[in-house]
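Supplementary Text 2. Reproducibility record for the structural model of the 419-residue chain.

All settings were left at their defaults, and a single model was retained for analysis rather than an ensemble. We include the record here because the model underlies the residue-level annotations in Supplementary Table 4.
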Amino acid sequence: MTAATTLPTPSSRAHREPVEATGTAVLDVVVPVFDEERDLGPCVRRLHRHLTDALPYPFRITVADNASTDATLAVADALADEFAEVTVVHLDEKGRGRALRAVWSASDAPVLAYTDVDLSTDLNALLPLVAPLISGHSDLAIGSRLAPSSRVVRGVKREVISRCYNVLLRGTLRARFSDAQCGFKAIRADVARRLLPLVEDTGWFFDTELLVLAERSGLRIHEVPVDWVDDPDSRVEVVATAVADLKGVARVGRALATGALPVAQLRRELGRAEIGAADERVGVAPGMTAQIVRFAAIGIVSTLAFLLLYSLFRAALPAQVSNLLALVITAVANTAANRRLTFGIRGRRHAGRSQVEGLVVFGLGLVLTSGSLALLGALAPAASHGIELAVLVLANLVATLLRFVAYRAWVFHPRRQQV
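Retained model, structure tokens:
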């Protein structure tokens, strides 16, 4: 991994300055192509017409030719002669990521975007895509085919592959964006200058790697629901691309785990400051009464969830194992809910520490409930399932009282949140 270089940081971690229209292009839209002599002309003409009609800013269309072996480069040069806003960049090596890095790194436009040459994505989403970047509201923007309001026409095979891939990203890299591979994205140039040197992939995984790095760096990613129609003549090799993506996921996951990617430094320099970061106890009514009411409500829900899970597990597992599993599952959700709702702590600062300490506190509940079950087993071996649940409710009530005290005096104490 390349070490982060020292460059001027964006104007503020709290916000970005709006882009001012100048004589140069405000938006540079890149069209990466490889052997697309047939589709390139219609694509650029349609894109140029749309930008002329819909975008109230100067623009540029950059055709990035990835070592084409047909007449693509000649077509691109002819388009550049036809339109003053069209330029051509030729690369001797293939790779969509390589093309985007080359053009975006050299562009003088403050907002950079790209679209696939097939224009599967409806261009009416282009202005909503780049507007938050121009205004300074967001740092990156992506078109999403998986948003609830998106309208998508494609085969079952590609639909399943796309959704499985995004589930994989959520499970392995903790990604929160919904669609990594839609060929319709934009980024502010000041942010791109910092992130691109750290992105290694030169192919299809380039998008995913850039988005994961941006998200981990605390940048804001704007998602736009799109209308998308699959191109039946797509050149994407599904199997080879899937294998490359899996390798990329493993590589990026390893880099994040070992600290090879300087996301902490990038978050300090680029990331948007959390709202209420100086005082994370924002929005909760003061005093113990409000905290007790909220804690009790969460406790009731947690107890019901615990009893339900215990009953489900008890149908196939011993009592102690069922108790342990039910407690662990409800512990994480209970701690997160109390952190935010009862004690008013927002943002991710100390969230990991709070979860660990919350599990320690729940360990007390495990001791009390397990001890109660053990005592019941010794005194009344033939006790019914209803008696087991009654004993567990009483033990949970005691554990809940002690948990509130531990939360308030230790885990979520105001002084500890400022450390």
